[in-house]
Amino acid sequence: MSVSEMFINLQGVLTVDQDIREDIRKVVQTLEQTAREILTVLQGVHQGSGFQDIPKKCQKAREHFGTVRTQLASLKIKFPADQYYRFHEHWRFVLQRLVFLAAFVVYLETETLVTREAVTEILGIEAERERGFHLDIEDYLSGVLTLASELSRLAVNSVTAGDYSRPLRISAFINELDSGFRLLNLKNDSLRKRYDGLKYDVKKIEEVVYDLSIRGLNKEATDGAGGEK
Amino acid sequence: MSVSEMFINLQGVLTVDQDIREDIRKVVQTLEQTAREILTVLQGVHQGSGFQDIPKKCQKAREHFGTVRTQLASLKIKFPADQYYRFHEHWRFVLQRLVFLAAFVVYLETETLVTREAVTEILGIEAERERGFHLDIEDYLSGVLTLASELSRLAVNSVTAGDYSRPLRISAFINELDSGFRLLNLKNDSLRKRYDGLKYDVKKIEEVVYDLSIRGLNKEATDGAGGEK
Amino acid sequence: MSVSEMFINLQGVLTVDQDIREDIRKVVQTLEQTAREILTVLQGVHQGSGFQDIPKKCQKAREHFGTVRTQLASLKIKFPADQYYRFHEHWRFVLQRLVFLAAFVVYLETETLVTREAVTEILGIEAERERGFHLDIEDYLSGVLTLASELSRLAVNSVTAGDYSRPLRISAFINELDSGFRLLNLKNDSLRKRYDGLKYDVKKIEEVVYDLSIRGLNKEATDGAGGEK
Amino acid sequence: MSVSEMFINLQGVLTVDQDIREDIRKVVQTLEQTAREILTVLQGVHQGSGFQDIPKKCQKAREHFGTVRTQLASLKIKFPADQYYRFHEHWRFVLQRLVFLAAFVVYLETETLVTREAVTEILGIEAERERGFHLDIEDYLSGVLTLASELSRLAVNSVTAGDYSRPLRISAFINELDSGFRLLNLKNDSLRKRYDGLKYDVKKIEEVVYDLSIRGLNKEATDGAGGEK
Amino acid sequence: MSVSEMFINLQGVLTVDQDIREDIRKVVQTLEQTAREILTVLQGVHQGSGFQDIPKKCQKAREHFGTVRTQLASLKIKFPADQYYRFHEHWRFVLQRLVFLAAFVVYLETETLVTREAVTEILGIEAERERGFHLDIEDYLSGVLTLASELSRLAVNSVTAGDYSRPLRISAFINELDSGFRLLNLKNDSLRKRYDGLKYDVKKIEEVVYDLSIRGLNKEATDGAGGEK
Amino acid sequence: MSVSEMFINLQGVLTVDQDIREDIRKVVQTLEQTAREILTVLQGVHQGSGFQDIPKKCQKAREHFGTVRTQLASLKIKFPADQYYRFHEHWRFVLQRLVFLAAFVVYLETETLVTREAVTEILGIEAERERGFHLDIEDYLSGVLTLASELSRLAVNSVTAGDYSRPLRISAFINELDSGFRLLNLKNDSLRKRYDGLKYDVKKIEEVVYDLSIRGLNKEATDGAGGEK
Amino acid sequence: GHRREDKDSINSSSAVIMAFKSFQLELDTRHDKYERLVKLSRDITIESKRTIFLLHRITSAPSGEEILIESEAKLDVVRQKIKQVAQELMGEDMNQFHRAISPGLQEYVEAVSFQYFIKTRTLISLEEINKQLIFAAEDKEEEETKLPASDCLSKQSLTWSLKVTPVDYLLGVADLTGELMRMCINSVGNGDIDTPFELSQFLRQIYDGFSYIGNTGPYEVSKKLYTLKQSLAKVENACYTLKVRGSEIPKHMLADVFSTKTEIIEQEDGLS
Amino acid sequence: GHRREDKDSINSSSAVIMAFKSFQLELDTRHDKYERLVKLSRDITIESKRTIFLLHRITSAPSGEEILIESEAKLDVVRQKIKQVAQELMGEDMNQFHRAISPGLQEYVEAVSFQYFIKTRTLISLEEINKQLIFAAEDKEEEETKLPASDCLSKQSLTWSLKVTPVDYLLGVADLTGELMRMCINSVGNGDIDTPFELSQFLRQIYDGFSYIGNTGPYEVSKKLYTLKQSLAKVENACYTLKVRGSEIPKHMLADVFSTKTEIIEQEDGLS
Ligand SMILES: [Mn+2]
Ligand SMILES: [Mn+2]
């Protein structure tokens, strides 16, 4: 085989690779668009008026997740299944975003932490790496950290909207998360850095609870909460 | 499952990952050591006296490649086969180096470009991605570019050693390589950058050939070359 | 001695150094693990229910410090005693963390500032540099600053838990710390930067005390405190 | 002991440390001044006219090294002997510079590589770490790499000055150095980076030798060299 | 003049410059020390018991300003009088600190804003740039901003100490300052950044006043205030 | 129009913009492919055997320029005609490359510098900005500089191929170019940097001419040249 | 040098040299224009910034109306500078000089949208901004200086205009949020409890808008998202504080509080 | 906001407010001056750069003398700008505005020292440079506009001057070496074999000077050492090549070579 024949072959391989990347990029763009739309829906909960419609907003977000599933289904056939990590960087960011959005919906609905398995179900992907397009554990954790920071914001806005019980529940939830993360031995990487931010969320919510406590509003909250929930 | 149980599970996964990386790092270090030894053997060809022993040096290098094969065999069982690209960064650099060394040996032996398949044979790894631990095409190309730059140095030193025909042959070889690379459509990445260096190697060799020509030494070379080859 | 013999000798020295670092890194990892466990134990004091069990939590933390002592004992024999500062960076961070944890325990037990000597005793290391593996003064101070920030958080959570006297005591303690630090002439380095954060802790606690005062809750606190203390 | 007493004590320790650093800085400044003067003397060899006076220049440099010894003697008593690595950063740079200068002088005098022991003798410091103020191995290697790059410049200027034999000897010397460094397993740090630069020095000198060879000037050089040396 | 003579001259100029800077740095360190001592004196006003002794504390601070004047007198002769801005950075920070301290004393004494002229008198420096070592307007303003933030803290602590009238007076004072600062067009520099902080001081005091108002404590305050002043 | 409507509109604008860029990128890729093909055709002239076929190679290159014209025609309709400089970066590089290739063909054909107008004709674009898709002057100049560097290489290879007159003609040509470029006042940008390279091309050719001169080969050349052209 | 004369022989009137002489002229003209635009952009930036400072004085001034009028005058001055920019760009491709003028235009967007918000409590649109950047020749002289240069132009062309790009608009609006945050904190400090809630509503809309755009815009826009989020958090926290502290107020005191406050301040004024 | 009136009551003629009004004036004046100086600095930079380009044309021009005269005229224009800077800085502490004018002054040092080297083959001293930056009032008008503003000044004060700082001088000279390197390569390309050796000698002196200063100067100076070393290496390599190729020339051909060269080029000129 001459050198030029060799290189023609090699170019063939490179072309396949470039086409795959191009295809992935396109699907990822549509995923990002859907993610942004879900975000816009869910950001409504921070508005004073948004507190009544939480179920409706979750409902709407869930519908968008239907689209996400279709788009992810389309993504996973764009490349050979065993090359997940070869192209990982392309969808990593949007997948973290989607984990956050799914976790946010689940939290708003049930005030629990979505499990990794549950997220994969919502996204229509595999729970186990061996079975195909799955969710990398670090991406799952990254999405969960984003949830913590969103909830600390929600605690603040809940008070503004006159809901004094929600911050108490958020506080308990985030404390649990914090304990969970303390069980992990994270490398010195971006996830570790993001985790360092969690303590600010914890502190912020503790201060909200404090503000309510000192004014006796937490009692008001728990008194009423019984009925509300 | 409680949050803390969830995180204990997650930590289990993280630990496995960290252990794998640690194992890989260790094998890669031994590979780097062997690569340095092969390099030392082959560097001898640049010295005046080294031109006679080329076959012997190649022979010795080939022996070291036996060690490489053992080490790579040990590397490939350190992680699940379908996660090649997850840990790719760890061995990428040393693999490119080994490709260069194999290509250098083959060039010295036969003055031809080693094929991707031949390299994988020398290294004892797979030619096809589907079959297991393989050689990424970009790593192959990167190693070949290192060869080009080594050969431009060899051309210079050949003249010093009084061998006026080798530069002419190297010139032809590198021109072929350059044409080959021009067939490729490279992305704007590190490979592209390294390819941009090739033109300096081409130019350097052309200047060596020019220096021989204007002094009539190229004729001397080809006259003798007939007999030599 | 030939150049190559010289370099073989040099490589011997380098190898020793690299092995030491590897060993140190491993012990430091176990220390980090223990530190995280102590932290988890002590974090409980921030929770409402945690205020009763402070002595028990301190007890438990003290037990973990036994492990720390063993691990540090193992660390100090990994390298020649007079090269403490050569490898300082490796354990610096975890040592600051452990100082903080020891200081936290001591504060919870006696509401006093742990001395440098006392910390070294808790950690099982030397108080004097001359005598071996010791505690760098800046690492001690850094740990103390972490304590200040933890206490400002504790003040907030005390109020939430209905303990109105603790913030007053914390306020007095931190004011003393602040005066202490004002006696120091710190360089423009990371310690100085961390010290600049102390004023926010001071301010935060003053605001907590203010909140109690304006609502007359501080009197309630000191009334009761008389009996409590 | 009250908190403020504790901090007064601590400030005492800090002051000692700061004074030591101030003292070290001052001596290091005088060392840098002497180093710059030695450099100015030695840079004369690059001037066309400077080739005759090499012995005189070396002589003059050697005198300056007397000053260096006095200054280093003054430096080593500025701090406790076992805290070498605590203050290492302060003199690291100038020590590397002095190693280079000593190695340059020795090369100009005898065309050999100065050993680590010989350097410490020239500088009047210890060869063994255990015995006191010594020379860190990485600082030695760093100085040697600077020599390589200075010699590649010297090779060029030798030709300009009409000395065709020196480049050949420099080439042999640097090749030996290069082989030596290839025996080392360097970490991915600044020394490794500087070592990567060595190959450019090797290449540069090979090209000089090539230029001489192709014009037959190397023969002229070695013919004459017999008499010259 | 030869090139080397020119550079020797230049090096001389640079050395002189460095010596000046070294001298300045030393004086500035003593100034920082004195500033820290004044601060320690004045910090007492934040403590409950400190409210009675304000005049005595101010007296003591004024004595320290005697030292400051001596130190500044020594500073101003360290460099050519017309090169104030050449070395400005060295004392800029401590001068801002001293302005703050002087302004704090004056405020505590008379509850008025110290004028720029008055500060220069307290510090024993010139009011006009043309006349010598003076006070840059931005440094004056920066010191004043520190005062505002200190006063907002004082307002909080006054309430804790049971003084309900002081916050109202501080409120009026800071409001006037705020109106003043709004007249300025600041560049995007550190002063602008510090000015942005003023809003938060104003806000904080507004909240204190509000807290007093809704509890009717402000009336109590103004009733008593007439007599107090 | 509500804020959210406004942002939806803006997002629409951005999407259109991105689509345009995507379209442009695709056409530019095809242009790069064609440019690479033309280059491959023309590279032949550097080979010994290539000197006879220059007219044929130029002919073949000219055919490829037909494709270029079609592709550029397709490019220019991808975006609003008056926004050339908005998307300039996308095609800047390939256009400079095409200018070089056109200039190379014209030089090989007539040994003259292609004018800016002539290049635009070859590329099928406008000469005047006002009339549409045109050639920016800096891109033209950049392409011309690439030509200079290619010709200095050609001069070297001409000698190797035994053509001693071409280097002399190239020398005159590049000298004129150099005189032209010296008239320009360039900013510190990439064009300036590339222009700095021209000096080395001039130097290289000067060296070739010198080499010919001292061997009397230039006379041989000019004697024969009359007949050849 | 003894060989210098060799190359002097190049004919200085050769076609190549003639061409390069024209290139010199073309490049110098372009660079000079760029430089003039950079200077204009700096002027625009400074005056816009000063307008923003002026507008922040509204809460403390006796009458907001006066300041609005003054700010309008200042913005008119800025627009005169932009007109000069537009004149420089007449017949040019504005994108070619975009980097020179972009910082100034962004700052102008910030200033003009801040003023607009204060007046209308809504976000000025890009179209509205661009409408104000159409300039007619103002006096005879301008018309005359223009006519000879391009006498084929119709009457209608006696205007210059400049279009702010969507991206510059977005970047200006992103910076606006910083000013709105400042205004919010100022308001709280001034005892104005309505404005903060209005501002938080408005800022949230802008934040949602930027989130919607996300990373589809250029990098500079995404880069501002973080600061924007910080500003929003500050405003939301301010509203939170207002709400929390408001929760303590006994309803019957509501009117009382403010009248008392006024008294105190008047009294203090008497003292100072 | 319904409580806005509260704070409006602050007396706008209070001492504090009056003081801040004067601060506003003072700061605005300072910033405006700074801005004018930045603009002047940009002008100085551009014109200095163009002077350098002009000087590089010497090797290819028919007569160096003409270009030297032209460059002198260009530098005079630059100095007029520097005079304006000096006028702005009259009675000010120049160091206060140093950052605004430093880039321009460095570029001027580069240009003037380049011209000086070409004329004298030596390095211009800082003193020499500063001597050229003492300006007298040039015409009646300038004298008059100056007099009323400061009529207490003596006749002698009718000059403005500006002193380049040693650091700016060093930074300018460091950049000069880049231009000298270009000149060296140009010379080789033009067949001038003396200039490169002169330049290498000169550059080595400057390099040795900078080595001697080492890191005792400010960071900006140390930072340029690397580039300086690169430039020196390029010049030394050029000299090396000249020497090596010169070694091949048969002694008897020496005269022959250059005359032949000239012939060829003349011939070529006829063709083009
Ligand atoms: Mn702004
Ligand atoms: Mn320059």
Automatic annotation (TrEMBL), chains A, B, C, D, E, F:
<keyword id="KW-0255">Endonuclease</keyword>
<dbReference type="InterPro" id="IPR016069">
    <property type="entry name" value="Translin_C"/>
</dbReference>
<dbReference type="GO" id="GO:0003723">
    <property type="term" value="F:RNA binding"/>
</dbReference>
<protein>
    <recommendedName>
        <fullName>Translin</fullName>
    </recommendedName>
</protein>
<dbReference type="GO" id="GO:0016787">
    <property type="term" value="F:hydrolase activity"/>
</dbReference>
<dbReference type="InterPro" id="IPR002848">
    <property type="entry name" value="Translin_fam"/>
</dbReference>
<keyword id="KW-0540">Nuclease</keyword>
<dbReference type="InterPro" id="IPR016068">
    <property type="entry name" value="Translin_N"/>
</dbReference>
<dbReference type="GO" id="GO:0043565">
    <property type="term" value="F:sequence-specific DNA binding"/>
</dbReference>
<keyword id="KW-0479">Metal-binding</keyword>
<feature type="binding site">
    <location>
        <position position="150"/>
    </location>
    <ligand>
        <name>Mg(2+)</name>
    </ligand>
</feature>
<keyword id="KW-0694">RNA-binding</keyword>
<comment type="subunit">
    <text>Ring-shaped heterooctamer of six TSN and two TSNAX subunits, DNA/RNA binding occurs inside the ring.</text>
</comment>
<dbReference type="GO" id="GO:0046872">
    <property type="term" value="F:metal ion binding"/>
</dbReference>
<comment type="similarity">
    <text>Belongs to the translin family.</text>
</comment>
<keyword id="KW-0460">Magnesium</keyword>
<dbReference type="GO" id="GO:0004519">
    <property type="term" value="F:endonuclease activity"/>
</dbReference>
<dbReference type="GO" id="GO:0005634">
    <property type="term" value="C:nucleus"/>
</dbReference>
<dbReference type="GO" id="GO:0005737">
    <property type="term" value="C:cytoplasm"/>
</dbReference>
<keyword id="KW-0963">Cytoplasm</keyword>
<keyword id="KW-0378">Hydrolase</keyword>
<keyword id="KW-0539">Nucleus</keyword>
<dbReference type="InterPro" id="IPR036081">
    <property type="entry name" value="Translin_sf"/>
</dbReference>
<comment type="function">
    <text>DNA-binding protein that specifically recognizes consensus sequences at the breakpoint junctions in chromosomal translocations, mostly involving immunoglobulin (Ig)/T-cell receptor gene segments. Seems to recognize single-stranded DNA ends generated by staggered breaks occurring at recombination hot spots.</text>
</comment>
<dbReference type="Pfam" id="PF01997">
    <property type="entry name" value="Translin"/>
</dbReference>
<dbReference type="GO" id="GO:0003697">
    <property type="term" value="F:single-stranded DNA binding"/>
</dbReference>
<keyword id="KW-0238">DNA-binding</keyword>
<dbReference type="InterPro" id="IPR033956">
    <property type="entry name" value="Translin"/>
</dbReference>
<dbReference type="GO" id="GO:0016070">
    <property type="term" value="P:RNA metabolic process"/>
</dbReference>
<comment type="function">
    <text>Exhibits both single-stranded and double-stranded endoribonuclease activity. May act as an activator of RNA-induced silencing complex (RISC) by facilitating endonucleolytic cleavage of the siRNA passenger strand.</text>
</comment>
